[in-house]
Amino acid sequence: MAVVETVRGPVDLGSLGQTLMHEHVFVLSTEHMQNYGADWWDEEFRVADAIAKLNSLYAKGIHTIVDPTVWGLGRYIPRIQRIAAATPVNIIVATGLYVYEELPQQFAYRGPGLLIDIPEPMVTDFSRDITEGIADTGVKAAFLKFALETPEPSPGVERIARAVARTHVETGAPITVHTSGPHQTGRTAVRIFTEEGVDLSKVMIGHAGDSNDLDYLTELADQGVLLGMDRFGLDLFNPGTERIKTIASLTARGYAASMVLAHDANCFIDYFGAAHDAARAAAAPNWHYEHISNDVLPALLEAGVTQAQIDTMMVENPVRYFTPAKGGAS
Ligand SMILES: [Zn+2]
User: Does the reported pTM lie above 0.85?
Assistant: First the structure.
């Protein structure tokens, strides 16, 4: 059977088991942490905390998390390697770039037709992460990630989208795109991907589950993409009861093979500074790795979703997403 790259190396796709398709370990800006983190970042405490949380998740039967933390969200693989070495949970990591509007200056002057006229450096960097490994860690990225917040992307975001698409065409690596449910930017993603020749069966429309618009969701699914029902616990974007109703409606219409589940949670995110623990406990008490296992799966069963459909969403669809396309390069 085919394999997928994880932080500990290649793993047989058949052994991924129940998989959460969009979870961060940490969202942590290096500059923020190094300059202002003295009162809220304790490296050893947070590493031990992440290991404990992942081990607890494993005990719930979740054996794999897919972590789309790329540049812009604070990817730092050596820290993730420490954690992966101390937990049986498979961690699959990504390459790509996460910005909503402005291209980082580090790419503004380099590229085709620019001051430093070279082939698209994002494709070069992303491809290297996939084929050779990230920095000198030996860890290979298994998928691509970027963000589309607005239906008409800025020139910078469009350049990222096309670089991600071209890296997919070169390497065969699947794509996860952060989209806006309210702005229905999954449509923009599908349009750009179609123009670039992307295999839509290798695309996950992240945060599709923030929308309850069944016309929008089935329109996307009918084009072959996976819908990320991936923010359980973030009720401020869409209440959990609505998320569950939407999934039950879609499974009743035959769309179990088009959905995957996750929380978009993390063990620590630096957006709240020193108020981290109190802020998330107050604003999003269910925003943690175990909410789906503890609460969402029982609620889905109660709403008429079958165990077989849950297995499709949590086991079979992730395997299909990471299975190399016929003729793909990897
Ligand atoms: Zn995320």
Answer: yes
